[in-house]
Design brief:
By secondary structure, the chain is an alpha+beta fold. The chain has 3 domains: about 290 residues, Bira Bifunctional Protein, Domain 2 (BirA Bifunctional Protein, domain 2), CATH 3.30.930; about 130 residues, YbaK/aminoacyl-tRNA synthetase-associated domain (YbaK protein); about 100 residues, Rossmann fold (3-Layer(aba) Sandwich), CATH 3.40.50. It contains 15 helices and 33 strands. The strands form 9 sheets. Strands 3, 7, 8, 9, 10, 11, 12, 23 and 26 form a 9-stranded mixed beta sheet that branches. A 5-stranded mixed beta sheet has the order 17-15-16-18-21. Strands 30-29-31-32-33 form a 5-stranded mixed beta sheet, sandwiched between helices. It starts with 20 loop residues before the first helix and ends with a helix. The model has no long low-confidence stretch (mean pLDDT about 95).
Length: about 575
């Protein structure tokens, strides 16, 4: 491709609303253009990267025995009501009505549609196992879209669904997909880990998230420091041993104290001169219109993933008005003593002595609370987030944490959707059985941003060869010089004939501008055709990854470039 014939629109300054490096560089390098909050146009350079990622995904899906189709973006509300997710999904589900008043969802995922398709088309165990996938635009009405395509309202995703006659068959295919995902992310150049995760609204009992290691990532992974153990999970779902706060002090009488304007754990602990671990944090959730109190130690956060499993998938934090109605106090002053509602608590609350919590009265807290003496708990659960320094529940070693970017997730759905939607097939003995399902998703457009987060420097993007928009860029420092132009064009033509994706910068620009743009867009190899051509008959090859340069005779350049591309591919 000639630069003068391309629509490459690089920018010198990053957009003011871009927080992540990947967001800034995707805009500056002319990969994407913002249309609205969380909605982006993929420009030609960005689309080339997207198509390369898709090609890798398609290759590995075919290798795993999956067959591609294309499902509708619009799905009728009736299907979502069958699965129960029309109400569960909440405001992230984009909903529309047609001219007849019928409701539809813009698909954020396609479990309902694929289950409906297969229940109507696959009738016998002889048609199983079956895996179907698509690469398609998805929609989620994010409350706060951010980080460019990393968390957008419209994004490209590969979603695959498998159907089996038994759990054993699903287990076997789950391992096949695990291996396929490993190959995909290796081919895209990532350092990553597969970790246990929470299934969220997708459902299922077993799920793994593939996380690219990156300090800028939103995902926090908790992992065991013992390399022989290997336990790793997302912070939302990680399990571990949290040290109990124990005390042999005698139980004191309840005491109400004035804590004006002290509504947070940090404020109360500082005001009273006690450790946050001595506080009982009381959070109110609403489930089907009923308020439930959830308790956790003051130095811990609640894992909503664990809480939803213990409480109800549809639970939500109560509003300030609902809290006021239930407790008689403003937010920050709720406490378990005297509450007339169901109370569940984290295991860490059990055994606390002389604890502190809200008094259900604005600007007041209670001291010397003892669970069991001053209030009853309807159930203790593991609902607190573990963190670095806690102990591994498998081997007892210390847990560590690191950050990463979610690339994809695989799920064992079991019969969650097939049972709710009546999706059955005829078994080996003629009996009617529910399909056993798996689900496998990859954020295709997110991979691009994650690759940039993993590969960049102060000058721009550093692409791996496998997904770079072009493999080679030829930079004639003075295109108007006949000798330079002729040699650059000869290299360009030869590389194109050999199938090497090549960009030639034939603009009438200063060499410095061309070099800056080449570094910004991140093409793996730059071929500079300049003064050395006349002085020594050589061109300069520069690797984008480390800046190493090599002078190569112009008549040997094509072979040397081909070797480099083959090695890096």
């Amino acid at each position: 491709m000639r630069w003068t014939q391309s629509f490459i629109t690089t920018l010198r300054e990053p957009p003011s609303d871009a927080d992540l490096v990947s967001h800034r560089l995707m805009i500056r390098a002319g990969l994407i253009s913002k249309l609205s909050s969380g909605i982006y146009t993929f420009l030609p350079l960005g689309l080339r990267v997207l198509k390369k990622v898709e090609a890798i995904v398609r290759d590995e899906m075919a290798r795993a025995g999956a067959e591609e189709l294309l499902l509708p973006i619009l799905s009728p509300a009736e299907l979502w009501e069958e699965s129960g997710r029309w109400g569960e999904y909440g405001k992230e589900l984009m909903r529309v009505k047609d001219r007849h008043g019928r409701e539809f969802a813009l698909g954020p995922t396609h479990e309902e549609i694929i289950t409906d398709l297969v229940r109507n088309r696959a009738k016998s165990y002889r048609q199983l196992p079956l895996c179907l996938y698509q690469i398609q635009t998805k929609f989620r009405d994010e409350i706060r879209p951010r980080f460019g395509v990393m968390r957008a309202r419209e994004f490209m995703m590969k979603d695959a669904y498998s159907f089996h006659e038994s759990e054993e068959c699903l287990d076997k295919y789950y391992r096949v997909m695990h291996e396929a995902y490993t190959r995909i992310f290796e081919r895209c150049g990532f350092r990553f880990r597969a970790v246990l995760a929470d299934s969220g609204l997708i459902g299922g009992d077993v799920t793994h998230e593939f996380v690219a290691l990156a300090d800028s990532g939103e995902s926090v992974v908790i992992s065991c420091s013992n390399p022989d153990c290997g336990y790793a999970a997302t912070a939302e779902s990680a399990e571990g041993i949290i040290a109990r706060v124990t005390s042999d002090e005698k139980e004191n009488a309840l005491e109400k104290v004035h804590t004006p304007g002290m509504g947070s754990v940090e404020e109360v602990s500082a005001f009273l001169g006690v450790s946050p671990s001595r506080l009982i944090k009381t959070l109110l959730y609403t489930v089907d219109g009923v308020t439930v109190s959830v308790l956790v130690r003051g130095d811990r956060e609640i894992s909503e993933a664990k809480l939803m499993r213990a409480l109800d998938p549809g639970a939500r934090l109560s509003t300030p008005g609902e809290i006021l109605d239930a407790t008689g106090a403003a937010v920050g002053y709720a406490g378990p003593v005297g509450l007339d509602m169901k109370i569940i608590a984290d295991e860490g609350v059990k055994g606390m002595v002389n604890a502190v919590s809200g008094a259900n009265e604005t600007d007041y807290h209670l001291l010397n609370i003892v669970p069991g003496r001053d209030f009853s708990v309807d159930g203790y659960f593991d609902i607190a987030c573990v963190r670095a320094g806690d102990r591994c529940g498998r081997c007892g070693s210390e847990l560590a944490d690191y950050r990463g970017i979610e690339l994809g997730q695989i799920f064992k759905l079991g019969t969650k959707y097939s049972e709710k939607m009546g999706a059955v097939f005829s078994g080996r003995n003629g009996e009617q059985r529910f399909f056993v399902m798996g689900c496998y998703g990859i954020g295709v457009s997110r991979i691009i941003a994650a690759a940039i987060e993993s590969g960049h420097d102060k000058d721009g993007i550093i692409w791996p060869m496998s997904i770079a928009p072009y493999c080679v860029t030829i930079v004639p420092v003075n295109y108007s010089d006949p000798a330079i132009r002729e040699s650059a064009e000869a290299l360009y033509g030869a590389l194109r004939r050999d199938g090497v994706e090549t960009l030639i910068d034939d603009r009438d620009e200063r060499a410095g501008v061309k070099f800056k743009d080449a570094d910004l867009i991140g093409v793996p190899l730059r071929v500079t055709v300049g003064k050395k051509l006349s002085s020594s008959g050589t061109v300069e090859l520069t690797k984008r990854s480390d800046g190493q340069t090599e002078d190569v005779p112009v008549n040997e350049a094509v072979n040397r470039i081909m070797d480099f591309v083959a090695q890096e591919a």
